[in-house]
From TrEMBL:
<dbReference type="InterPro" id="IPR010131">
    <property type="entry name" value="MdtP/NodT-like"/>
</dbReference>
<keyword id="KW-0175">Coiled coil</keyword>
<dbReference type="InterPro" id="IPR003423">
    <property type="entry name" value="OMP_efflux"/>
</dbReference>
<keyword id="KW-0732">Signal</keyword>
<protein>
    <submittedName>
        <fullName>Copper transporter</fullName>
    </submittedName>
</protein>
<feature type="coiled-coil region">
    <location>
        <begin position="388"/>
        <end position="415"/>
    </location>
</feature>
<feature type="signal peptide">
    <location>
        <begin position="1"/>
        <end position="24"/>
    </location>
</feature>
<dbReference type="Pfam" id="PF02321">
    <property type="entry name" value="OEP"/>
</dbReference>
<feature type="coiled-coil region">
    <location>
        <begin position="180"/>
        <end position="207"/>
    </location>
</feature>
<comment type="similarity">
    <text>Belongs to the outer membrane factor (OMF) (TC 1.B.17) family.</text>
</comment>
Length: 440
């Protein structure tokens, strides 16, 4: 019995270990992006909206249904006999209304133009999701890498505490009790920083829960392929080239299609000045006379037309409203373009500053910090330095490493944001890659 319980416990432990290893599989940046773009529900909702408008465009280009009327006319009330009076007849009528000018074709065209913006809205959404997901993943990687840096230095701090305690125990040593307290205090601060970074790590991963199942977020993030590839050489791009790139941005192209639809709506409104025609056909059946004489059946045909003579409060205002809507969309395009330009140049300036800071840290600051930490430690071990200087130098070196990491991550996040503004170029690259894969 004991052996069977032991075997079950070991089996359960093996299952739990295997499960934890599966959950702990590192989450790569490209994997996160691909999954998010494939399972983004907004894109499917956008496709349904496009299908709805395309269906409406087909309906809008169709004439209204003809109207069938059936009636009994001029039936005498003194006997309700169908053959008593010559005017009594059973009438069947059919009427059809026609559109004003080309209003049906123009309404159909306007809806088709409106539907054409939806693929561009999806491309814009894909670029947004790519940037947002990349930023969340990079923030998770930032926290994870910072935790690794601190854990690496924790061993050194523990070693320093052991040295100070041994030196303090030795009456010949120069270590004071406050040195031990200082070392323990710094170690406690590192523990607090680790807790804070773990919180940041979890928060960054949970940000991805909007697109990824929670099971994929239980493990660490991958240390491979942490670089964001720049879609374009942003630093070399002239201002005129920036304008050209942004004019081809999916968000701007979508507004262009909306503008065309609104301009067509203006033409639809102007068609209201034209008369609307209608046609009706009627056939009246009459019974024979009471004496048996035959009565001729009756056929009628007619045309109706409405005359838009008083246009001040109806047609004129409808045209004014359509023109105002078109101008509003045109202004929205200008606002969106200016917003994209402002954000682009802001991120470009950020990228330039981060590149300078990265070079400063890599070439000067980090080597200097390492030299200072090593020098203070050597001086202290030779009883020629202060322990507080050793701790201060080590903490400064650790902070410098974390700052250098933050600079690198901020640079990658900035590149991800800049890639959003180059979404048109990114779409071309993705299309070319997909075409190449299909050809293979």
């Amino acid at each position: 019995m004991i052996h069977s319980k032991l075997i079950k416990a070991l089996s359960l432990g093996a299952v739990l270990i295997t499960s934890s290893l599966v959950k702990a599989e590192p989450l790569a940046l490209n994997q996160v992006i691909d999954y998010a773009l494939t399972h983004e529900p907004w894109l499917q909702a956008n496709k349904y909206q496009q299908q709805a408008i395309e269906a409406q465009s087909i309906a809008a280009g169709t004439l209204p249904d003809p109207v069938l009327t059936v009636g009994l006319m001029n039936l005498p009330t003194d006997g309700f006999a169908f053959d008593q009076e010559g005017m009594t007849q059973f009438k069947v009528g059919l009427s059809q209304q026609f559109s004003r000018g080309d209003s049906l074709a123009l309404q159909q065209q306007a809806l088709k133009q409106s539907a054409e913006q939806y693929p561009w809205l999806r491309a814009d959404r894909q670029a947004q999701v790519k940037a947002i997901v990349s930023e969340a993943w990079l923030n998770a990687y930032r926290a994870q890498k910072s935790i690794q840096l601190i854990n690496q230095d924790k061993a050194l701090f523990n070693q320093l505490i052991d040295i100070t305690e041994a030196s303090y125990a030795n009456t010949l040593g120069a270590t004071r009790q406050q040195d031990i307290i200082r070392a323990q205090l710094e170690l406690t601060r590192l523990e607090d920083k680790l807790v804070m970074l773990e919180q940041q790590f979890d928060s960054a991963k949970k940000r991805l829960a909007q697109w990824l199942p929670i099971e994929m977020l239980n493990g660490a993030v991958s240390d491979e392929n942490t670089k964001v590839a720049a879609v374009m050489p942003y630093k070399e791009l002239a201002p005129s080239g920036v304008t050209e790139v942004l004019m081809n941005h999916p968000a701007i192209i979508a507004i262009d299609h909306a503008m065309r639809a609104k301009n067509t709506q203006v033409q639809v409104a102007k068609e209201a000045y034209k008369p609307q025609f209608g046609m009706n056909l009627g056939y009246g059946y009459r019974d024979d006379t009471p004496m048996g004489d035959s009565r001729a059946d009756l056929f009628s045909i007619g045309v109706s037309v409405d005359l838009p003579l008083f246009t001040d409060n109806r047609q004129d205002q409808q045209v004014n409203a359509a023109i105002a809507n078109a101008e509003a969309v045109k202004t929205n395009k200008l606002i969106t373009l200016q917003k994209l330009q402002g954000q682009y140049f802001k991120e470009l300036s950020q990228l330039s500053r981060l590149a300078k800071r990265k070079a400063l840290y890599q070439q000067l600051l980090l080597p200097q910090m390492a030299e200072q930490a090593e020098a203070t430690l050597n001086a202290y071990t030779n009883d020629d330095g202060d322990f507080s200087e050793v701790m201060r130098a080590r903490i400064s070196e650790l902070n410098a490493k974390i700052d250098a990491l933050n600079i690198e991550i901020d640079k990658q996040i900035t590149l991800a944001r800049l890639n959003y503004y180059a979404a048109a170029k990114d779409n071309q690259i993705n299309a070319a890659q997909s075409q190449g894969a299909n050809n293979e």
